[in-house]
Amino acid sequence: MRNSVGDVNSLGIYIALQDCSTKGKTMRALVVDRSQEEGLSFAEVPEPVPGPHQAVIAVEAISLNRGEVVRKEAIPGTVPGWDAAGTIAIAAADGSGPPVGTRVISMYKMGGFAERRAVDVERLAVIPADVSTTDAAALPVAGLTGLGAVRAVGPIVGHRVLIIGAAGGVGRFAVQFAHKAGAHVIASVGSEARAEGLRELGADEVTVGVEQVPSGLYAVLDTVGGPAMISAWCRLQAGGILVSIGRAAREDATFHAYDTPMRDNLRLLCFNHTGPIVEDLGYLLDLVGRHELDTQIDWSGSWNNYAEAVNLLKSRKLRGKAVLTLS
Q: Do 219 and 174 contact (CB within 8 A), yes or no?
């Protein structure tokens, strides 16, 4: 197993594992493993030792996000994972945060793919009684990104809004929020098979690709990047905005001469959620509890079957989210 203290320290987090590594307390986790096709494998790693303002979560469900399973810069032996839901096993020593036994959802830049996770109390939210741990696990990265990207556009009542990559986890949340905000939502997908369910979520139009979309768009929310992003940019009306959320296509987006005429006052925003985690996660959880937001979980199962879920995600065969439960 490659999971040295040096690997952990190079990321500047979980330094307390130095103290834990000699105590013999370990846990099962999925770690970065470049020798495997999925980029992950199971290993025994030291349990996290929380700081005074951190709680330890006994993880029950995790969700997969494309960015965390295709990152080439991830250090072998480290524990990835942004989204993890479970129960507070150790409350924060300084008295902040929820007490032991509270169900919570957490979001952090790594450490979620493990039986236990230490996280600052500002990075978690309490799960209401009427929301399942599985549904909660699907929310943090995809839900917060979809919500924030729609907010970033501003008022969109009555405007035509194109969402590229609408079939994915972020895209399906964005479709719902754009619809709630009163937009005429155009959902762009990679194939007809991935379009299933988008009209029920609020899409007014569903199209394969971007080329058939007429010009005059007020806004574009793009999770794909590459040529599709450029094509959509050229379809914006004067004063329009393109919000770049991701680059699932893994292709460069090249703006050619005169693609950005100043007279049109077009705006390009590269978005990453930076808002209040607790408040926004609480809002999403409340919507799910009131059946006003669908988490769109397309695959769920034991984390022992992580390879199946990762391969579905990488091959773009998921219509929404994949959630793994710990067993």
A: no
The SS3 assignment for 147 reads helix
pLDDT digits (tens, 9 = 90+) for 310-325: 999 988 899 999 999 9
Which of 106, 113, 116, 119 lies closest to 55, judged by CA? 119
Print the domain residue range for 134: 5-138+295-325
Cite the DSSP H helix spans in the chain: 5-9, 17-20, 66-69, 133-137, 140-153, 169-180, 198-201, 226-233, 277-289, 306-314
pLDDT digits over 150-203, tens only? 999 999 999 999 999 999 999 999 999 999 999 999 999 999 989 999 999 999
Residue 286 lies in a domain: no
Amino acid at the residue 15: I
Q: Which two tokens stand for residue 110?
A: 């790594």
Q: What was the pLDDT predicted at 24?
A: 60
Question: What DSSP character marks residue 98?
Answer: P
Residues in the chain: 327
CATH number of the domain that residue 203 is part of: 3.40.50.720
The pTM (predicted TM-score) of the whole model is 0.88
Cα separation, 166 vs 85, whole angstroms: 25
Count: domains in the chain: 2
